[in-house]
Amino acid sequence: MPVRKTRQRAAWAAGLILALGMGLGAQPTVAAPAVYGPIAQGDSLWSVVRKTGGGNVQQRMQALFNANPTAFVNGDINRLKVGAVLNLEAAAPGATAAATPPAKVAVGSAPKAAVQGVVSTPAAAPTAPQAVTPAPVAAGAAAATPSAAALAPPVPPAGAPAGEVIKLVGRASAANDEGDIRALQQGNPVNSGETVVTAPASFVRMKLSDGGYIVLRPSTRFQIAEYRYTESSTDSRSVFNLLKGGFRAVTGAIGKRNHSAVSYKTAVATIGIRGTDVEVADCSSGCPDLSITPKPGLYFKIWDGTATVDGKPFAKDQAGYVPPAGGDPRPLAFEDPASPLNQDPTPPADPDKCF
């Protein structure tokens, strides 16, 4: 074959390969969802993350919380504002720290075309792929300063250990957000994100990794909503939700180092601590485990230290009551016989003081 024709065919083949490569490289990718909203009643940050992509759920929850600070009630990661619209870009699976801060999304107002759920924004015009060659680093040169995101403390994954069961009387179980349920036995771990449930006539005592203790009453549902214990007092946090029943708790190192890092939430009030031994029973919808039928509402006693109930301070040997509809906490006598906590007290959380 003549050399000229061979070169022509080789050039034609090379041109075809280049054209195909450019055509494939120019195919636009589907843009990741940009926003989610408006938030509906019953939505949680966990459910939003699960609906909008994969990746590490806890890390994406934290990224969404950081990127949308005005979308949460009183800065509480567990309470999304109804009507808010979340910027998802900062929490996209595999996303890295952006060179510029993400665009702010107005809370309470959604784009006109938005509907409840994921709202996509148009993808940018595709550009030809560019090869990037990393700049060489001279021997002995100082390493680049890590970004703020790289320095941020890691968020524990769902299921990270929070403590263990050290005493069990009767039966108890733990359920995670996936709906998996396991029976608890003495020595079993309890994890961040799990809800611990006690059966009738059953008690469970848990020791947390920071040295705190919690005892759950019979017929109780108690969620370890968020638990993170590190060497840094500003990075550690424990948030608990009393969904039903009652408990008694002694603060561990997290609360002793940073009082605002620990809270116990109920349907009618939030209890903050100041180095506290606190006892709580939520009888807003009845307390079938009690030997009496108390007036519906939330009852609490401060055995040691101080606490706040919806911001109102209570000291050692003080007690109170919150109506089932909420409102200002009302003081009660510490030994008031009308309080179910005096008729049927919860065992002390500290094992040195009880069963």
Mind explaining what this structure looks like?
Mean pLDDT is 76; it is low at 3-7, 10-32, 96-135 and 137-157. The chain folds into 2 domains: 31-121, no CATH class; 161-353, Jelly Rolls (Sandwich), CATH 2.60.120.1440. The protein has 355 residues and is α+β, with helices and mostly antiparallel strands. 15% of the residues lie in helices and 28% in strands. The chain has a 15-stranded mixed β-sheet that branches. Strands 2-1-3 form a 3-stranded antiparallel β-sheet, with no helix packed on it. Helix 2 crosses helix 3 (57-67). It is globular. It has helices at 3-25, 45-51, 57-67, 148-151, 253-257, 340-343; strands at 35-36, 86-87, 118-119, 161-169, 172-175, 181-183, 189-191, 195-198, 203-208, 213-216, 221-228, 237-250, 262-265, 270-282, 298-309, 312-314, 318-322, 330-332.
The total count of helices amounts to 6
Q: What is the approximate shape?
A: globular
What percent of residues are in strands?
A: 25-35%
Domain count, please report it. 2
Instruction: From the 3D structure, determine the CATH topology of the largest domain.
Output: Jelly Rolls
Strand and helix layout:
Elements: H1 3-25, E1 35-36, H2 45-51, H3 57-67, E2 86-87, E3 118-119, H4 148-151, E4 161-169, E5 172-175, E6 181-183, E7 189-191, E8 195-198, E9 203-208, E10 213-216, E11 221-228, E12 237-250, H5 253-257, E13 262-265, E14 270-282, E15 298-309, E16 312-314, E17 318-322, E18 330-332, H6 340-343
Helix pairs in contact: 2-3
Short note summarizing the structure:
This protein has six helices and 18 strands. By secondary structure, it is α+β, with helices and mostly antiparallel strands.
